[in-house]
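Board work, copied verbatim: Glutamine--scyllo-inositol aminotransferase
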Amino acid sequence: MPGFEIFDDSEKQQVQEVMEKGFTFRYNFDGMRNDVWKARELEGMICETLQVKHAHLVSSGTTALSTALASAGIGAGDKVIVPPFTFVASVEAIVLAGAIPIFSEIDETLTLSPEGIQETLKTHPDIKAINFVHMCGSMGKMDEIKAICDQHNIILLEDACQATGATYKGQALGTIGQVGALSFDSVKTISCGEGGAILTNDSKIYDFAHQYSDHGHDHIGMDRGAETHPIMGSNYRISEMNAAVGVAQWKKLDRILDTQRRNKKALKDALSSYPEISFRVIPDESGDNAGFLSFMLPTEERTQEVAKALAEQGIPGVFYWYANNWHYLKNWHHIHQMKGPAKLPIDLIADRPDYSKVQTPKSDAIMSRTLSMLINLSWTEAQINERIAAFAKIFR
Ligand SMILES: *Cc1c(COP(=O)(O)O)cnc(C)c1O
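↓ predict structure ↓
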């Protein structure tokens, strides 16, 4: 997954161009920037590659989620379905919007299941939106998910922060619902150092997005001081230096995806010969971003044993999410307590869920048996073969 592995002179040259000819701020200063507009350039590249009408860069994937929620009209008191298996940011963005996260079950796609969503709708018929997280580079059952959203008038927000470049039936993840979010943080498929993007085909959502992430500025004309402010917002802007890194990285997206797919296939083919292993269900395997190889073992005990054995064989980058602090609900004690530094909007909602009691048994049954292996870009053939040799010692 990590684009930083192939940083070279091209990223440096892009940043240097900003420092020598351009300006650090993404808007205005037309007279001093010699027509260097890195954020605009990267936004144009994203729109073209992902075939989406609008892409708006912000400071992170998390602020992209916050901006996407607000711009799609999701705010105080609104209920938003979210999976128990995700990075905490997907939940934090909902809580900080004043909205209410409602946890729903995942299936063996490792993303929200249509059945789980239907089940949640029985107890919460007033769900406003789904934050659909494309975990570990691939998608869920998007036709069924989209149909449920359309049927119940639910906004589909896609957290595609881990799935840059992935597609479902030819459509980029992040562009299937009304609005999507990408992350370009230091360890993602494309890295700007820090950065993120909001994707949408809806011009109204786009206008709110660029306004909201820049204090409500309308971005009309060349005089920032004379702009009007249709809404309030905040500062979630990306800097030109970060965007410049992204311009160089985005040009490598095809190479990154090709390498990941090739490396992942070699490992997956090798693991396929062991009957105790089953794989994450990927509804459109040709669109997988291939940043991770996720597989399941028959029992929780065996999974722990295999995780330990892989570590002992010196294989890094193997994640047992079920036991980790950052990616699974079970261990998010601060979220069970809804703990912020100060009183949160959700504290004013009398009938909010008691998050210390939320149960997701179907997801537990899957995640307790799932391991994910990070797919690196820099692996040599010998390093891939070392992994395959280690598998032979461990798997039955
Ligand atoms: C990385 C990530 C985010 C947040 O992105 P940042 O750029 O680190 O703020 C959100 N959701 C998921 C699923 C992620 O993996």
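Residues 60-62, 86-87, 89-90, 133, 159, 161-162, 183, 185, 196 surround pyridoxal-5'-phosphate (CB under 6 Å).
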